[in-house]
Amino acid sequence: MRTCGVLMPISSLPSPYGIGTMGKAARKFVDFLEKSGQKYWQILPICPTSYGDSPYQSFSSFAGNPYFIDLEYLCREKLLKKKECESFDWGGSEKYVDYGTMYVSRYALLKKAFDRFMENTPEDFAGFCEKEQEWLEDYVLFMALKDANGGIAWSEWEEDLKLRKKAALEKAKEKYAKDMEFYRMLQYLFFKQWKELKAYANQKGIDIIGDVPIYVSGDSADVWANPKQFYLDKELNPIEVAGCPPDAFSADGQLWGNPLFRWDVMKKDGYAWWTKRIAAMAKLYDIVRIDHFRGFDSYYAIPAKDDTAKNGKWKKGPGIDLFRTMEEKLGRLPIIVEDLGFLTPSVHKLLKDSGFPGMKVIQFAFDSREDSDYLPHNYPKHCVVYTGTHDNDTVMGWMKTAPKASVKYAKEYLNLTKEEGYNWGMMRGAWASVADLAIVPFQDLLGLGSEARINTPSTLGDNWKWRATEEQINGQLARRLYKYMVMYARVNPKKLEEEEKEAKEKQKKAAKK
Which CATH architecture has domain 11-206? Predict the structure, then answer.
């Protein structure tokens, strides 16, 4: 069955309080997806963001982002008052997130909610904490200690805490018990709201595609609590870190700085940490998208002391052994893999052996006149096509910034015209292809330029900010999108007609009552 979806980060949803949340606007977006004939909502990682605000650099692979907790929901739960929410500064623009302001206002407000939460703790709170304790207890202690140490990285904490000496941890748990309870509450609220939002989406026939970064942040509960799983020295400092080699776009390469996995250690324990991580993500999402898949075949290791990626070396990853081991433990899971970039024959083999669908990005198709794998006529059915991802410019931005020869080629190949809109022409290229699944970023549906770009790789300070406004998620756009879904057989029109008929009949019956 040919299907389709939209890429829209939760942070990019409309909201009166500075950032998108799991509240009313998220449900309206689900309604929009249903009306426009979509099957999937793809989001970015929903873990708590660290410095730089990137969802790909998180304090925990398992925790949820407190920014996404809906404040109106907390008002209904009598944990907050609307006047309190309105009294805080949420930044000066409805179109961009102000993360500095967000950090100050959001946590101050959530601490007010915590005081009321502790006066009347929900019955299921203890059960949640017990069920999630394997990751939750390390995370809440990590965050409490981080606050107590003025936000510095755990690698700079006092020796006994850094090395997780038992006596020091017990003392810290006693001293920071209230702070730990605050962070437990945040996770309880997050997962309660997430569960309800996901149930709403699934009831409407919308499945959620969630993102799993391959690497974790060095300054995270993951690394602090599991140092033997990562390539660290005796003092727990990274020996080598992750990145990408120099290429045509970057003379120094990309220095991501994430600690690397000790794949030999992980293999010995049956990839226990990875299995837990993927199991947790498979519960959160309907489909898991794994980022930087080529890193499982071979990965680029850069000396930790270096300040560029020039001196890195390629090293062998776990390959198919990791995925076969996880399949034995978890069963066959619905997974999409990001197989973009320079791919060697061994990466192609790993993709084939895994059986997972890879990704095609139409913007990458027009770099030259060579017969690119990204040109729609070369796609296999078993793939997911995008006009662009969160790391690309929007279609309209690309049309202005890409090399003239590439733009000319795209116009010829896709028959792009100003009258229709270049964005619609490129999206048609995705929908018309044989790819089983086609996903477009919401900004491309709106025809926005580079001002709506989500992320520019290897840059800091101006990413992950773009937000949609309420008016942009509308019925007119849904109807236009639905028309194309019918045209390119990515929706079953009869099914939707039957559902609409049923809904009208229910309304008539309700009106008679």
Answer: Alpha-Beta Barrel (3.20)
